[in-house]
Amino acid sequence: MTRLERLGAGLAEPLLVTSGVNVRYLTGLSSSNVALLVEPGGATMLYTDFRYLEKAAAVEGVTIERTMRDVIGALATLLSGRRVGFEPAHVTFAGYERLAGGGIELVPTGGLVEALRSVKEPSEIAAIRRAAAFSDEMYAALAQEKFTGRTERELAWWIEQAFHDVGADGVAFGSIVASGTNGASPHAEPSDLVIAPGTLVTIDAGCRVDGYCSDCTRTFATGELPTELAEAYALCLEGELAGLAAVRPGVSGRDADAVSRVAIDAAGLGERYGHGLGHGVGLEVHEAPTLRPESEDVLEVGNIVTVEPGIYLPGVGGVRIEDLVLVTADGGESLTHFTKELTTVG
Ligand code: ZN
Ligand code: ZN
Predict the structure, then answer these.
(1) CA of 13 to the centre of ligand 1 (A)
(2) What's the gap in Å between 208 CA and the centre of ligand 2?
(3) What is the CATH number assigned to the segment(s) 3-117?
(4) Which among 76, 153, 278, 310 is most buried, taking Cβ atoms within 10 Å?
(5) pTM across the whole model
């Protein structure tokens, strides 16, 4: 069955797909102005404007309807009087008002394509494996670089260049380089801060291959560490290894998350690990399923998720260690392999 047929098989009523990433997943078409109407059973109308007609013609299993530039405006007329599901996370309030104003009965029907996307097909796993291998190559080269005396921003640019050099299509997201006290912020922006000796530097980076992302974090030492940071690193690694060991089909995102917290909580640093254990990765760097305390997701074979505990000490520094893991029948297979032993750089 094609992806469209699999989606159609689970539909009770037509679904209007307006998320560009979901359209890409279902049809292979990348467009900034496109929508699909998928009928129960999978018959699909594809709506787009002149600029994408040629690419759309290559999509199999859809009927193409050319619209003017305003696809939502056209749909308000074309679907008037019908009852259709829509993706509530991917329609703006203005778009909703226009569709409803066209006399369409709109039924919120979120997460269906995201659920399909969360279980990867062999070709998707292959793309993410390649992206993860490029991450390994990037980290191996990075570990040979001099960190101290360079700014976080310089290192972030070096990482982007390195991903291009090893053959990736581009970066999956803006690389995080967080040194010294900046490391206490999980999503610090690379700054003009010059990296100092004797501290930790968190590097969270990923690349793209055929549209699919990698996501991997390593934290490096720039020389002898204060005890507090050395202990935080060891604890974070212990939590990460426990999280990795917990990944298997049937485990809930909540339980895997909880396992990663045991050692960190016992050391009294639970409050300093304030985010979830991980997230799914695919066409987007953050997608289903989620691994965090409030997650209701249950892992299944074919999910690809991150395992990434962190410890953030305000005014001191921070550490995060992140691997990308494929859920297999026997557990989890890490797709990222660069060493997690504390690595000291120059
Ligand atoms: Zn990351
Ligand atoms: Zn991540």
Answers:
(1) 37
(2) 14
(3) 3.40.350.10
(4) 278
(5) 0.95
